[in-house]
Design a protein that fits this description.
Blueprint (H helix, E strand, L loop, with lengths): L31 H8 L6 E2 L3 E3 L1 H5 L6 E3 L2 E2 L5 E13 L4 E12 L3 E7 L3 E10 L5 E2 L2 E5 L4 E10 L2 E12 L6 E9 L2 E9 L20 E9 L3 E4 L3 E7 L2 E9 L12 E4 L1 E7 L5 E7 L7 H18 L7 E7 L6 E2 L4 E5 L12 H17 L6 E3 L5 H19 L5 H17 L14 H6 L3 H18 L1 H15 L2 E3 L1 H12 L3 H9 L5 E10 L2 E10 L16 E7 L8 E5 L3 E6 L8 E3 L8 E4 L1 H12 L5 H16 L5 H9 L7 H18 L5 H19 L9 H16 L3 H15 L7 H13 L3 H13 L3 H10 L6 H11 L9 H11 L1 H13 L1 H8 L3 H11 L5 H13 L6 H31 L6
Parallel strand pairs: 5-15, 21-22, 22-24, 25-26, 27-33
Antiparallel strand pairs: 1-4, 2-3, 5-6, 6-12, 7-11, 8-9, 8-12, 10-11, 13-14, 15-18, 16-19, 17-18, 20-21, 23-24, 27-28, 28-31, 29-30, 29-32
Helix pairs in contact: 3-4, 4-5, 5-8, 6-8, 6-13, 6-15, 9-10, 13-14, 13-15, 15-16, 15-17, 16-17, 17-18, 17-19, 18-19, 20-21, 21-23, 22-23, 22-24, 23-24, 23-26, 24-26, 26-28, 27-28
The chain binds ligand BES and zinc ion.
Length: 936
């Protein structure tokens, strides 16, 4: 596990929230961002991209980082109005034939048409001006680097409408992007489905097109498929008839789509079962599952049918298509994809088995469904103008998924979990010098891939949560509704949303939000107080928070910080709100006596860290012990102090003392966040010879809550109890708590012998515990369970903990397993990540394995976002300076353009870890020893 930032990976690769073991979800060197900044044009049409060496950097005798050559968006002289697209996939030789007949508008006479196209062979192309004769294209000039093709015509195409016809062929690839094949087993046989994943820039791999989000058109899609296969696309089927040339095939036609962006087009051809329902607003909802597993679609179906009317009501805009399908795809790179009307999911993000799925899986499915359905409005109906505004899509959906889950499952207390999963993750990443602003210029596809990161998702969601809180729900909804209505079937930018919210609320939204989206980082608010009679006078100041300690730069950026304050009088109620729009200010709270505590940022909503004066902090600590501080505030306080200790602002010993004050903590999410941080510390201290002492600390801290929870659920217990039990037992077992280990072994044996099957919520902690302290026969048993498992959730559960095994030869066995046929291509990352995150030996072995198998891994993920995840999980946990240099030099000779920033972030993290260890290791050691020493 990475030390600080990799503990929760964004996108879904593992559960962000409620993971049973804190499994990873989703990035100096001469900062290549400075090199890039010079090469990036700022006009809309040109953005940075493609590799050339920077002579300037070379001359300065500094590290040579790749520079990118200018990226140019598609010309606007020809644009599509409607795509008539017919595809005929061959599921045996993995190719497809395609026919495109696009109605286009020529806005300026030209004798060439430039479109996006990649890995496709064009056979013929012609253009027929409306009412005139067809002209054949005389040349197809592929610009492979730019993923474009230029079709040349012998004479100029005149202004006006016309039909562009292209016949082409392509490969059904195995790279999980474009139009690709996905492997599954049915009746003991290996079979393939043909599926799509187009976001961000891969529609061009399925058909030549104008593959930019702002170039919207309607689509008439037809698929020629084997007659026994299910064929799905964005819209409902309008015709299905035998294909005249082959009696085994049928031609399936779909209704015309609304005007939409290419990245949202989808088709699926395969064997599936489904469950169906009708939402209260009349939309047909189907969940497609692997054959024989329709039951496992019921939970998602229920969530989806509740969610559609919830969004309809929230946005006050109806869902515009007649149907929506949610489908589980076996080989799938992301967690899920919001294709309009045909949402694709990893199996683990959609399927729930009442007996075999754990509580965190249910929660994850609910969040993912909530997320992707939100995109049907926010993203699909109104689409970002360019990828620079990707955060609008992803940040917004990552915020509203919680609102939706809170509506469907209030018992999940999901907003507290937001703080642990998204808010703190964003703060951690954004404290790095190698972070980036939410709004970032991007051009080349590798740059677009790079921004599907925790800044777009988690910081995006966090600043929207802060904004929602600042505006209030009513005006927020008013503004959202105005935005969706004004820009429906069109494109919008960040400013457009601010305008609508500003109109609705009368507040200076653009000015406030610009300070959060246009500059990277966030402030630390330093607070001191003075008692003046019955008044409490607070002195607040802001400066940039840096993971490496106080900001010393000359020019300190400022933020417009909405500050709220509560007191012990009523910890649930905000006493005062102010907008801190300058470096410092003084606030007087009237009627606050000397015995009251004052808390800044109740609810942990504002996107900043807080540094209290020692006397203010002292006064807050009893509120942790007696639970009078709200759970989310106990969590926030602990997390702030933890990050201050990593930055060297306070001693790590202080945070250990604080953690001991949580001994009576009842709240799952508070424990979960604390447990993540302890995991970070434990990983850091695995570089020392007193790693065992921190294990003892963990055992002591978690024993009372473990005892009170016991192993078996009690009547009346709920979702959060199940999550807490799983967390605590896993933590105790991993830290070598003997009674937990013994009981885990006993239960594991009964499970394996099929005498007493483990309840799903106990499986991760039990597997982890027995494997951590197990031998080769434990590993073999686990691999056998993996082989036998029918559900992908169970396979993933096992894959993620395999790395816990301790013996070096067994670690190697797990690493080889990661690349074997037994592991789905997208899941290799979490097996290797599990090895890296488990121990010092694992970390070294995983990194060596990544280096040794780099070509295969890079090729498998085509340098896409999964490679960034892999890098982060593999190297973020190192804590020795020379490892930063090694990682940097490896990626200089093995460039991964879409992971460039991730590599910088990892190197920065490694140096921070090393500095942290040097600074605090001795004191931590002393503290851990003396807390056990008998009092003199
Ligand atoms: N639009 C994304 C899918 C995506 C991710 C496409 C990366 C291309 C690259 C989708 O809406 C999404 O965000 N999915 C998340 C799940 C979500 C619940 C956070 C994912 O894939 O992890
Ligand atoms: Zn999304």
């Amino acid at each position: 596990m990475s030390l600080l930032l990799g503990r929760r990976v964004p996108l879904s690769f593992v559960h962000r929230v409620g993971a049973c073991c804190p499994a990873p979800r989703w990035k100096p060197v001469i900062s290549s961002s400075s090199v890039r900044a010079t090469s990036r044009a700022t006009t809309q049409a040109t953005h940075g991209a493609a590799i050339i060496l920077s002579a300037a950097a070379a001359n300065q005798n500094t590290t040579i980082m790749p520079e990118r050559r200018p990226f140019v968006r598609l010309p606007t002289d020809v644009y599509p109005v409607n795509y008539g697209l017919c595809l005929k996939p061959d599921l045996i030789d993995f190719t497809f034939e395609g026919k495109l007949e696009a109605m286009v508008e020529v806005t300026q006479a030209t004798n060439q048409i430039v479109m996006n196209c990649a890995d496709i062979d064009i056979i013929t192309a012609s253009f027929a001006p409306e009412g005139a004769e067809e002209i054949n294209a005389t040349g197809f000039n592929y610009q492979n680097e730019d993923e474009k093709v230029t079709l040349s015509f012998p004479s100029a195409l005149q202004k006006g409408s016309g039909a562009l016809k292209i016949d082409f062929v392509g490969e059904l690839n195995d790279k999980m992007k474009g139009f690709y094949r996905s492997k599954y087993a049915l009746a003991g046989e290996i079979r393939y489905a043909a599926v799509t994943q187009f976001e961000a820039t891969d529609a061009r791999r399925a058909f030549p097109c104008w593959d930019e989000p702002a170039i919207k058109a309607t689509f008439d899609i037809a698929l020629i498929v084997p007659k026994d296969r299910v064929a799905l696309s964005n819209m409902n089927v309008i015709d299905r008839k035998p294909y005249p040339e082959d009696e085994n095939l049928v031609e399936v036609k779909f209704a015309t789509t609304p005007i939409m962006s290419t990245y949202l087009v989808a088709f699926v051809i395969g064997e599936y079962d489904f469950v169906e329902s009708q939402s209260s607003d009349g939309i047909t909802v189907r969940v497609y599952t692997p054959v024989g597993k329709a039951e496992q679609g019921k939970f998602a179906l229920e969530v989806a049918t509740k969610t559609l009317p919830f969004y309809k009501d929230y946005f006050n805009v109806p869902y515009p298509l007649p149907k929506i399908d949610l489908i589980a795809i076996a080989d799938f790179a992301a967690g899920a994809m919001e294709n309009w009307g045909l949402v694709t999911y990893r199996e683990t993000a959609l399927l729930i088995d009442p007996k075999n799925s754990c509580s965190s899986s249910r929660q994850w499915v609910a969040l993912v469904v909530g997320h992707e359905l939100a995109h049907q409005w926010f993203g699909n109906l109104v689409t970002m103008e360019w990828w620079t505004h990707l955060w609008l899509n992803e940040g917004f959906a990552s915020w509203i998924e919680y609102l939706c889950v809170d509506h469907c499952f209030p018992e999940y207390d999901i907003w507290t979990q937001f703080v642990s999963a998204d808010y703190t993750r964003a703060l951690d990443l954004d404290a790095l010098d190698s972070s980036h602003p939410i709004e970032v210029n991007v051009g080349h596809p590798s740059e677009v891939d790079e921004i599907f990161d925790a800044i777009s998702y988690s910081k995006g969601a966090s600043v929207i949560r802060m904004l929602h809180n600042y505006i209030g729900d009513e005006d927020f909804r008013k503004g959202m509704n105005a935005y969706l209505l004004k820009f429906q079937h069109k494109n919008a930018s960040t400013e457009d949303l601010w305008d609508c919210l500003e109109q609705a609320s009368g507040k200076p939204i653009a000015a406030v939000m610009g300070s959060w989206t246009k500059q990277m980082g966030f402030p630390i608010v330093v607070v001191d107080q003075e008692q003046q009679g019955d008044n409490r006078v607070l002195k607040l100041s802001q400066k940039k928070f840096c993971a490496s300690g106080p900001h010393n730069g000359e020019e300190c950026p400022n933020w417009m910080v909405p500050i709220s304050i509560c007191t012990s009088d009523d910890p649930t109620c905000t006493k005062l709100k102010v907008l801190l729009d300058r470096p410092e200010t003084t606030i007087t709270l009237s009627g606050v006596g000397p015995d009251q505590w004052v808390k800044i940022n109740p609810g942990t909503v504002g996107f900043y860290r807080i540094q209290y004066s020692s006397c203010m902090l002292e006064s807050l600590l009893p509120g942790v012990r007696d639970l009078s501080l709200q759970p989310v505030d106990r969590l926030g306080l602990q997390n702030d102090l933890f990050s201050l200790s990593r930055a060297g602002i306070i001693s790590t010993v202080e945070i250990l003392k604080l953690m001991e004050a949580f001994i009576n903590e009842p709240n799952y999410t508070v424990w979960s966040d604390l447990s993540c941080n302890l995991g970070v510390l434990s990983s850091l201290l695995s570089h020392t010879d007193f790693h065992e002492e921190i294990q003892e600390f963990i055992r002591d801290l978690f024993t009372p809550v473990g005892l009170s929870l016991g192993w078996d659920s009690r009547p009346g217990e709920g979702h959060l109890d199940a999550l807490l039990r799983s967390l605590v037992l896993g933590k105790l077992g991993k830290a070598g708590h003997k009674p937990t280990l013994e009981e885990a072994r006993r239960r594991f044996k009964e499970h394996v012998e099929c005498k007493q099957i483990l309840p799903a919520d106990l499986r991760s902690p039990v597997y982890l515990t027995v494997l951590k302290h197990g031998d080769s026969s434990t590993l073999d048993t686990m691999l056998k369970l993996h082989k036998q498992a029918d559900m992908q959730e169970e396979k993933n559960r096992i894959e993620r903990i395999l790395g816990a095994i301790s013996a070096p030869d067994l670690i190697q066995k797990v690493l080889s397993f990661a690349l074997s046929e037994e592991v789905r291509p997208q899941d290799t990352v979490s097996v290797i990540g599990g090895v890296a995150g488990s121990s010092k030996q694992g970390r070294k072995a995983a990194w060596k394995f990544v280096k040794d198998n780099w070509e295969e891994l890079y090729n498998r993920y085509q340098g896409g976002f999964l490679i960034s995840r892999l890098i982060k999980l593999s190297v973020d946990g190192f804590a020795i300076d020379k490892m930063a240099a090694e990682v940097k030099s490896f990626f200089e000779s093995h460039p991964a353009p879409a992971a460039e920033r991730t590599v910088q972030q990892c190197c920065e993290n490694i140096l921070l870890n090393a500095a942290w260890l040097k600074r605090d290791a001795d004191d931590i050691h002393q503290y851990l020893l003396q807390r056990k020493a008998p009092p003199v």
